[in-house]
Design goal:
With 74 residues, this protein is mostly helical. It has one domain. 77% of the residues lie in helices and 0% in strands.
Amino acid sequence: MAVAREQEMRAEVEANRAKLVLAEAEVPKAIAQALREGNLGVMDYLHIRNIEADTRMRRGIAGEEGPARPGTGG
């Protein structure tokens, strides 16, 4: 019974990972649309990227590991 539950949980984790990948694929599209519509300025975008880079650097110093994300230089 426990083995079956463990396999169900692993399958659910994989399903959630797939949903995450699909959601992350929408982010660049949303950013591009916001830039086109004027809801996000170039400087705002660069500020966001700077914060992301700073967060990656701090996590690296702290020894936290995480998956490298495409387009983030890591």
